[in-house]
Amino acid sequence: MQYSLILAALSAASVTAQKGDWAASAAKASQSLQGLSLQQKAGIVTGTGWMQGPCVGNTGEAQSIGFRSLCLQDGPLGVRYAGSVTAFPPAIQAASTWDVELIKQRAVGMGEEARALGVNVLLGPSAGPLGKIPQGGRNWEGFGADPYLQGVGMYETIVGIQESGVQACAKHYIGNEQEYRRSELSANIDDRTVHEMYLWPFADSVRANVASVMCSYNKLDSVYACENDEYLNQILKTELDFPGFVLSDWGAQHTTDGSAKGGLDMTMPGDNFGDNQFLWGNNLVNAVNSGQVQQSRVDDMVSRILTSWYYTGQDSGFPNVGFNSWNGNGGPNVQGNHKEVARAVARDGIVLLKNTNNALPLNKPESIAIIGSHAFDNPQGPNACVDRGCNTGPLGMGWGSGTVDYPYLIAPYDAIKQQADADGTRVTQADSDNFSHGGTAARAAETAIVFITADSGEEYITVEGNAGDRNNLNAWHTGNELVAAVAEGNQNTIVVVHSVGQILLESFIELDNVVAVVWAGLPGQESGNALVDVLYGKTAPSGKLPYTIGKRAEDHGVSIVRGDDNFSEGLFVDYRHYDKQGIEPRFEFGFGLSYTTFDYSGLTATYSDKSPADNVAAPGGSASLYETVATVTATITNSGDVAAAEVAQLYLGLPSSAPETPAKQLRGFQKVHLEPGQSATVQFPLRRKDLSYWDAQGKNWVIPSGAFAVHVGASSRDIRLTGSMA
Ligand code: BGC
């Protein structure tokens, strides 16, 4: 007792010295390493086995150094399998806000809840998939189909989570773009494409000091990601100078010595989902004793795990695990006031796609019909299906490990009804997707609001024939036909879409009777409240699409791959592909309407510091890559008559001296809130990396000489100001 008190006091005293300091944390880790036996080391790097501990992942402990079993728990939108947590909107909705502060605050909330429940490692955020394939089942867990936007989302989220001393986990590294054959296919990505697309957000993650990275299920150039020397040792740990640890996705480890040599530092869940087969544990001890795996490699694994633990200050005062994933003990209510940020993200991520003659905002209509099953509570409750693996009732998140149990889910119908009652609006309803019911309800009201969805998730659950990835890009439950029936009966039809990603809107988007289309995305628990805020103009819509909505599925140029994936589209993903091929999208990346209008003026572009990047290693790659060398500014004016926010976007074109590169690439954005008539200057600082391409031969970032095209606009195609800088 006395002894442990002294130990606790000692570690409390030393914590300030380590926390937030990689070098000091590494020094402390190597000191602690001295006191550990090989058996203890093997325990720290090996999960205890599936469901052997309160969390989805649990490590061994080492009491001699005060190291308790680590709790690793999903996921990217909050704490999974807990009883009373906030169901934040998924990352795709956070990305749709394009609001850096909101993205960060969402993560602060997630970190606080994870800490309060004793979660050491929260298994998120996710930048893999990047979302190159619209049908990809898990795109909604990340921040949209652009590496720069993903990078900002990852950075802010990691900083936000780790503020509470919870370790974030950047996942799934790397090339895991689809669910179909995710554990068999090889992603073969050329070096330039890796650096400029898929690695980009992971570099930002390391730069944000992420404590851990999860290697993915797939192979890379025919070698499993979790034993891939090139991707783990060379790129992640050397080029990006990642000081933390690599943990396997659940069951993504395939060999004892191969994974050790390839750069894996922790295996999860330890066994292969309850089969009691441990590739590490005693097998790692034996491999060291027989000389197959070097002791120094095991020491490095443990050092990295301890370094992240010290870095986040978890060696002192970190709460015990306060819930259990498996036995119904959900733990205390840790929601605090996080429903406010959850609502703000849900609301500001809503994208207004169509609004004929200012049909929205609603102004006390005489009567409204609310149509479609997804507007109404699931009578079985919002958590009726494990890991949200069914599509009944309001859709607030996709399905799979990246979900949480809702504390509540505000159905659109309930929130609209409340507002309608206050306004004296008569409400009729059709709480099914039956066309004739929908048509009848629509005919009986002044305004009809019809709800459609599309869902996707992780491959271990199949929902309505979709094994994770979506089978197609259509609205589910014959949503198109439902909209047609409603529009036939009502001249003021408003379509609300809750979806994991792009769907085809062609069957109704141009109908005169469809006066508004509201892309409400994946709103989490605050669905109805967020929607009412926008429908009624309490807040003007300010979300922008984090991907392109095409007119035909084929227009995206990619689809679920059946064999290996050679990533032959290279850099030409999403809007980069549409621009290159000259294909007209329905709604382009970055698009979103408001209730006001914005003028753009006064473009300036200065490129002052032309010195090249140096090669001094630092987390994320050479620190000089992240120094600001150019700045673009513009003035945005709210030229309409309601207060609103605009997301001004900067796209760069590289000089012609660079090898073939997309004509425009997102390299900055800023959201500004403006009163009517008010103006503000937006600033886009450009880092060396933002002006560079990856030279695969020279293995370096190169800033091409010549003039850069500078485009500032309201979307990737609605460019308002163009200039150049050299
Ligand atoms: C998923 C990971 C998740 C893990 C633990 C895996 O199937 O791919 O994203 O963190 O399970 O639940």
TrEMBL record:
Primary localization class, coarse: secreted
Catalytically driven reaction(s): Hydrolysis of terminal, non-reducing beta-D-glucosyl residues with release of beta-D-glucose
Subcellular location: Secreted
Pathway: Glycan metabolism; cellulose degradation
InterPro entries hit by this protein: Cellulose_deg_GH3, Fn3-like, GH, Glyco_hydro_3_AS, Glyco_hydro_3_C, Glyco_hydro_3_C_sf, Glyco_hydro_3_N, Glyco_hydro_3_N_sf
GO biological process: cellulose catabolic process
Enzyme Commission numbers on file: 3.2.1.21
Record-linked Gene3D superfamilies: Glycoside hydrolase family 3 C-terminal domain, Glycoside hydrolase, family 3, N-terminal domain, Immunoglobulins
Protein keywords: Carbohydrate metabolism, Cellulose degradation, Glycoprotein, Glycosidase, Hydrolase, Polysaccharide degradation, Secreted, Signal
GO function terms (MF aspect): beta-glucosidase activity
Signal peptide: 1-17
Record-level GO cellular component terms: extracellular region
Residue ranges of domain Fibronectin type III-like in the record: 646-716
Task of the protein: Beta-glucosidases are one of a number of cellulolytic enzymes involved in the degradation of cellulosic biomass. Catalyzes the last step releasing glucose from the inhibitory cellobiose.
Family (UniProt): Belongs to the glycosyl hydrolase 3 family.
PANTHER family on file: BETA-GLUCOSIDASE, BETA-GLUCOSIDASE L-RELATED
Name assigned to this protein: beta-glucosidase
Protein source organism: Polytolypa hystricis (strain UAMH7299)
Lineage of the species this protein comes from: Eukaryota, Fungi, Dikarya, Ascomycota, Pezizomycotina
